[in-house]
Specification:
Layout: H1 3-16, H2 23-36, H3 41-51, E1 77-93, E2 96-106, E3 111-116, E4 129-140, E5 143-148, E6 153-157, E7 173-174, E8 185-203, E9 206-217, E10 220-226, E11 237-248, E12 251-256, E13 261-264, H4 273-276, H5 284-290, E14 293-305, E15 310-314, E16 326-327, E17 331-332, E18 336-346, E19 351-356, H6 358-365, H7 369-379, H8 383-393, E20 396-407, E21 410-420, H9 425-437
Parallel strand pairs: 3-5, 7-8, 10-12, 19-21
Antiparallel strand pairs: 1-2, 1-4, 2-3, 4-5, 4-6, 8-9, 8-11, 9-10, 11-12, 11-13, 14-18, 14-20, 15-18, 16-17, 18-19, 20-21
Length: 438
């Protein structure tokens, strides 16, 4: 920055210090921060004011961000924003009732929901322009939210410091459910409600009813959460304008609240719930690109039965698998017996780990948990059941169905069904060639 560009900021610092430090000294210090130490302008200004015993909240130039630039988990956020809406709410914190404020801030770039945890320190109303310093951001239901804590300062500015807020005219983006990805906002989807249930959750100390379930179209299915009662029922075909998406362990999930427009389509020519719930075969590579999948069906070769398969014992308190009779949370316990398979499946495009529970494992072995316990006692080793599963399953073609999640360790399917296939190699080769030609 040249002398002309830096001059307003020098005056801003000097004013914040009550003219206790000369402009020449301030200019020299600010130049040092910017050119020698390469400190950002806003940080440099706050540092100089603090160094001389001033209050950084008195600064007004060059320290604000715009709302559209906000990202989750930022600290020391400074904004100049207009109060689009503000409301009070009472919550209970450690047995004590306190009042908080919540609402929406806006500027010329976007809006952001906010929560002010110290309501007494923020005397504002709709339309006010405020200078906010030392706030922080979090992610809530897939969106950035601004939080104002006890270290945040809020000062009113002139209402003409920002132009009047006007909501951007941006129509929702139409998305098929099979193409839903995490982090989308203002989406429009049409789908059939396959299942729905309600439950009570605690949101910032307040009980709230959320309606969740499964919605689908011809391209796929997605889990959804409705944060308002739209009187949805199973089998309804609905159009949702203004939804958003987030991910849970890689699985995209649709969310919408009272800001969305939800319309029940009575004359819709739409796939039935039965058609939507029919198995939909997917390639593992495709699931990896999506980050996860709901109710996917895969076919591949089972190439490994991993350690931790067969006869296992679980902690009766937390259900974790025991290691040498020990739970990592509850220590040495008398374990509850169980059966499972941890398998690696490869379909030629990629691989994933699949978990097959007790009922599926009993079906594959054609023997019960009790039979497996007796066999292990006779052989004096639990590993005999894993060896039996490996002999039965490794190198076999299988079809699995279930939800696929992803994390740092890769893809994992929690299988709802599993079947060892008898493959007609010639027929499969013809089908593969046909798929490649399309």
């Amino acid at each position: 920055m040249d002398k002309e560009q830096i001059a307003p900021h020098v005056k801003d610092i000097t004013r914040a210090l009550g003219n206790k430090v000369s402009e020449a000294d301030v200019e020299r210090e600010l130049n040092s921060y910017l050119t020698v130490y390469r400190v950002p302008l806003g940080t440099a200004k706050r540092s100089i004011v603090k160094k001389h015993g001033g209050n950084p909240s008195l600064l007004s130039l060059g320290v604000q961000k715009t709302i559209i630039d906000l990202t989750p988990n930022e600290f020391s956020v400074d904004l100049l924003a207009r109060v689009v809406s503000v409301n009070e709410r009472e919550i209970e914190v450690e047995g004590v009732t306190k009042t908080i404020l919540y609402g929406i801030f806006g500027d010329s770039t976007a809006t952001v929901p906010f929560t002010a945890w110290e309501a007494d320190a923020m005397d504002v109303e709709k339309g006010d322009v405020v200078k906010i310093q030392n706030a922080y951001t979090k992610e809530f239901r897939g969106e950035v939210q601004l939080n104002l804590g006890n270290r945040t300062s809020v000062e009113k500015e002139s209402r003409d410091a920002l132009p009047p807020y006007e909501p951007p005219e941006r129509p929702p983006t139409s998305v098929e459910l099979g193409n839903l990805r995490g982090g989308m906002s203002s989406v429009s989807v049409v789908g059939r409600i396959v299942s729905i249930e309600s439950r009570e959750v605690d949101v910032e100390g307040q009980k709230k009813t959320v309606f969740s379930g499964l919605i689908g179209d011809s391209t796929g299915k997605a889990q959804f959460s409705a944060w308002a009662d739209f009187e949805l029922k199973e089998n309804d075909v609905v159009k949702i304008d203004g939804g958003y998406s987030k991910t849970w362990r890689g699985i995209p999930q649709l969310g919408f609240d009272n800001r969305a427009n939800v319309e029940i389509l009575t004359d819709a020519d739409f796939p039935s719930a039965e058609d939507i719930m029919k198995p939909s075969r997917m390639w593992i590579e495709e699931i990896a690109e999506r980050g996860g999948a709901v109710d996917a069906t895969i076919r591949g070769i089972l190439i490994d039965v991993k350690e931790g398969s067969g006869l296992i014992f679980r902690c009766p308190e937390c259900n974790r698998v025991l290691r040498k009779g020990t739970c990592r949370i509850h220590g040495e316990v008398d374990g509850t017996p169980d059966l499972r398979v941890k398998a690696v499946i490869d379909d030629g495009s990629a691989a994933l780990t699949a978990i097959l529970g007790k009922e599926i494992t009993e079906g594959l072995l054609e023997k019960s948990l009790e039979d497996c316990m007796d066999g292990a006692k006779e052989a004096m080793s639990h590993e005999v059941i894993r060896d039996e599963l490996a002999d039965l399953l490794v190198a076999q073609p299988v079809e699995l169905r279930g939800n696929v999640t992803s994390d740092d360790y890769g893809l994992m399917m929690i299988s709802e069904s599993a079947e060892v296939l008898e493959i007609d190699v010639h027929e499969e080769a013809q089908k593969l060639l046909s798929d490649l030609e399309e």
